Amino acid sequence: MLKGNEDMIQWHYHTKEHEDPLSTKERADDPAKDDAKISEVYDAKTGYGLLNSDSLRAHVDISSKGADQFVELYYKLFDTQRGVLNRLYRDSSAILWNGNAYSGITPFSEFYNKLSSSEHIINSYDCHPLPTQSLDPNTPGSIIVNVSGTVKYSNETNPRLFSQSFVLSPDPTNGSFYVWSDCFRFV
Amino acid sequence: MNLLETTKKLSSLLQQFGNPVFGHEVLLEVLLEVLLEVTDQGQGQDLLNDNGLFDFITRKVSREVEVNISSKRSNPTTNTVSFLVDNISQAKAIAALSGIRYNGQKLTITTSEDARIQRDRPSEPSSRSSVGQKTLNAIQVFVRSRYNGGFLNLEKIGDDDILRAANVAPPGASSRSESGTTIIRTAAELFPDASTISFASNELKSLRPIASLAQYFPKLMNLSLKGNRLRDFKDLDALSGPKALPHLRELILLDNPVRDVDIALNKDDISYRRQITKRFPSIQMLDQTPVSGKIQFNVGDIVESPKLPMPIRGNFFDSQSTQETVNEFLLNYFTLFDADRSMLEHVYDAGATFSYSIVTTAPPSKGPAKNTPGNWHQYISGSRNLHHTQELGARTSRLHVGNKAIVHQGLKPLPQTVHDLSDGAKYSIDAWQMTGLLPSICIYIMVHGEFEERLTDRRSRRSFERSFIVAPALQGSSAAANGWKCIIISDQLTMRSYSGAGAWTHATSPSNNTPAVNALSANAAPIPASIPSTGATMPLSAVIAANIKTSLPNAPALDSFPMPGMSQVQHQKALELQQLTRLKYAYAVECLTSTDWNVAAGAVLVEQRRASLPSDAWQ
């Protein structure tokens, strides 16, 4: 089951040991300072979200460009270089494929290596930036990307409609994004 | 020849075969003929050709029995029409209609048993009603006479005495003659295992008159068509191909123009033989010469392996509490989405995001992708399909942020919808809890399903995908005050042409979770028409509240709401202490307040005080 995430509690602003390589600000040891920073994250007026109109365009720009890149890259890899796909996942990734759950990339790659070779055609995708740790648009936070399209497996005659939903998150060690969760279904 | 003579001849033949059962069969079949008599003159022939009459009769008896009407004949002098049915019950059912009116005329209907009595009167003309039986019986006699140990010799049918006596035209003699089919069918009834049949010397110009061989003798192995008049290869089409006679091993086409002319033309039989083996791929002997020189491949039996490495499963939930929470949430959400979208202001976070996109191409099952944007003009201007929308301004404006903007600019402009939540099979839900993604725990939900779009002038069915990321509603928030346990952080909707629920309802394995709830509304009482907004945290449905447990041992505590006035950091620390000590949230908070929000000190304190803490302090 998808229990992997429980180990991944990355309270970015909470654990003292953790360095945020993307932040240029000094880490605050003073809880009061933390509070001030955090009250920007959760505010009764704006709730969990932090997308006020000033930064909205910037957030949209970064997140949607990220989605553009990801969608192109992911399906290209899936169709032509599936062996490399695992670099986009981690052991903590939560993966669901037509109701079959995989905790982490290793069992999932065993599965998709058995899947016949594929050809994906993308019909639509959309993405939202998520109100994760940082509200600074220069340090992009996680995004959710939903993709719709058709996929044709070489051992089948007809293409199938599919819907796939990704949550992409930055890897704390190097800032590159990976698949935090992946939910795929034929529709 | 009149009936009497025929009957005499028949009985002498019967005696030849010495089959008492055969005589019984004759009797039975006589009953199956139905006679229609109409009162008006000159209607007999018209009735014969009036298919409406036979449809009418078929329909009238359809409640009792399904009838099969064949061999229609008419007798203009007596204004009667007769036909055959399959068995007594059909005959009786139709006869029971006698007296019914059709097109203003009264139909008198009798079965041939009644007619037989009349027939025996010498003054009656030779019975039109017995034509059917006479023929059938003759054919049976004929077939029997031609069978010998697996071999059915149906050559020279036209010269046969028995059939001549019964006025049966040979197959192919006239375009309307069905004798080929009748002969073959009769033969199949009598000798279903015949594996060798000869239709030699029957002056056949094409195989159509005997095409029913494929139906009645599908396992036929040897066929002779020697000495017929088959001229072109296409004359063989009626029995060609791998599906017609898949077990045919030997074929003889000697003495047919199609063979002789081709061989004369080419000076050898190679191309002729190739044409034939192409049409009859299973044969190994043609014209008494083995079919040879073929490259064969033997791969044994190819076992069909399942196409997908994993079965398609139904709804996925990572825990019972997720399932209950999500089912309740979706039920309430879609109910309001259909009924009153302004009520949804409470369930979206102040910074939530919503957008929708549409897919205008038709699903692949409906043939090559067809773009039908005309169906979607309601949605096109707001559709945030990043695949098509590249420009930042549009990408930004089509993303709605904040509960008010979402409801008023995002949701309300969309057409009216109806989601049929009573049928869980129409929806697929995958949901699980996520920790570490957002500042609070959240649930990720992916729904696939359908809705009916209701415009003023028409209704359309659509399919949709919708992802929700929801977080617990904080105590004292307007969401909680309106009965919501969750608030929406992100809501992404994709709509496309209706494609049904087949992709997940044909799940080859049962769904992953507890058998109880796949239908969204299985646990719910009917939703009250107006949502009460007292200050208390009252659920939208009283019944659901009783069923939903707010804390289960294995689920991260969804009931841990930060208290008003607590900062986020304090909330996180409380959660951390909870995890370390398994204290209930309120107690963790209390503990931390006395240790100046130092988690480590708090944990120590808990250990010191463990004995004195009440039992309900623990999760």
TrEMBL record, chain A:
Any Pfam family the entry gives: NTF2
InterPro entries named among the record's database cross-references: NTF2, NTF2-like_dom_sf, NTF2_dom, Nuclear_transport_factor_2_euk
GO terms, biological process: nucleocytoplasmic transport
Alphabetical list of CDD domains matching this protein: NTF2
Domain of life: Eukaryota
Chain intervals for the UniProt region annotation (Disordered): 13-34
UniProt xrefs under PROSITE patterns: NTF2_DOMAIN
Residues in the signal sequence: none
Composition-biased stretches (Basic and acidic residues): 14-34
Residues covered by the NTF2 domain: 66-186
Protein name in UniProt: NTF2- export protein 2
Automatic annotation (TrEMBL), chain B:
Entry similarity comment: Belongs to the NXF family.
Cross-referenced InterPro entries: Leu-rich_rpt (IPR001611), LRR_dom_sf (IPR032675), NTF2-like_dom_sf (IPR032710), NTF2_dom (IPR002075), Nuclear_transport_factor_2_euk (IPR018222), NXF_fam (IPR030217), TAP_C_dom (IPR005637), UBA-like_sf (IPR009060)
Positions of the UniProt region annotated as Disordered: 113-132
Gene3D superfamilies for the chain: 3.10.450.50, DNA helicase RuvA subunit, C-terminal domain (1.10.8.10), Ribonuclease Inhibitor (3.80.10.10)
Top-level taxonomic group: Eukaryota
Residue ranges with Basic and acidic residues bias: 113-123
PANTHER family: NUCLEAR RNA EXPORT FACTOR, NUCLEAR RNA EXPORT FACTOR 1
Gene that encodes the chain: MEX67_3
A single Gene Ontology CC term: nucleus
Subcellular location: Nucleus
Protein name stated in the entry: Nuclear mRNA export, poly(A)+RNA binding protein
Domain NTF2 span(s) in chain numbering: 325-495
GO molecular function: RNA binding
Native source organism of the sequence: Lunasporangiospora selenospora
